[in-house]
Specification:
Structural class of chain A: alpha/beta
Radius of gyration of chain A: 17 Å
Largest interface: A-B, 24 and 22 residues
Order of helices and strands of chain B: EEEHEHEH
Strand order of the largest sheet of chain A: 2-4-3
Largest sheet of chain A: 3 strands, mixed
Radius of gyration of chain B: 12 Å
Oligomer: heterodimer
């Protein structure tokens, strides 16, 4: 039996589902699915200017594994640009580093590490929902 | 409770800056004495680790809640370690909107 994959640690899922190209007919239905770990790897390297070694520690995987995730992300994004494909960001073998909640009356998101009774840090109301 | 809010300009009507580490100013509001002041972010243009440096500076001021549009991973790591509450503002919210919501 193959060895099970270690779950990748991500800080926060994106608050949008992906991208669609404009100016072209997208009925061809080309679609690229970017997983959460690939999205996170891409951000760590290219937006936060970390090296693969640093980023692999943040995501809790080995350096070679990180490089593989990252290459896969780059390949998919390049393919999506060339083929004018829709990019969907979903799925993946991930675990969130912290829980993110949404307060509907303040319309803000906030994090909480502790389980149990959590209330909004601004208005102290308990009308909050857990973001998936 | 002392809350720091990333701000694009040093005024109450300023937008909450979409970035934490590279925002131009921080609005520091003390709920005890209702004192508000703006501090300039000296790490705005630092080539690396702006978020972590800014977070350390705010920690020195005794801030316990930080609001911004987005936090970088290094900042998140440090702030979680220190038990600082992170708040992510919605698009188009102003500094005064956040402050008015505090009870």
């Amino acid at each position: 039996m193959a060895r099970t994959k270690r779950r990748r640690l991500i800080q926060r899922a994106p608050n949008y589902g992906g991208f669609i190209p404009f100016g072209v007919q997208t009925e061809s239905g080309l679609e690229v699915v970017l997983s959460y770990e690939e999205y996170e790897a891409f951000i760590l390297c290219d937006n936060e200017a970390m090296t693969h070694a640093e980023a692999s520690v943040v995501m809790g995987v080995s350096r070679p594994t990180f490089t593989r995730i990252y290459s896969s992300a780059r390949k998919k994004l390049a393919q999506a640009l060339v083929e004018a494909a829709t990019i969907r960001i979903e799925g993946g073998n991930v675990v969130m580093a912290t829980q993110w909640y949404h307060c509907s009356s303040c319309s803000v998101d906030f994090n909480a590490d502790k389980r149990g009774s959590v209330c909004c840090p601004l208005c102290q109301s308990e009308g909050i929902t857990l973001n998936s | 409770m002392i809350i720091a809010i990333s701000a694009s300009e040093p005024v109450l009507q300023s937008m909450v800056d979409p970035l934490f580490g590279r925002s131009a100013y921080f609005a520091v509001y003390d709920t005890e004495n209702k004192g508000l002041r703006f501090i300039e972010n000296g790490h705005k243009d630092s080539p690396k680790e702006a978020g972590r440096l800014a977070a350390e500076e705010l920690l020195g001021l005794g801030v316990t809640v930080i609001a911004a549009g987005r936090f970088g991973n290094k900042a998140v790591e440090l702030l979680r370690l220190k038990g600082i509450q992170m708040v992510i503002s919605a698009k188009g919210q102003k500094v005064e909107d956040i402050i008015n919501r505090i009870k």
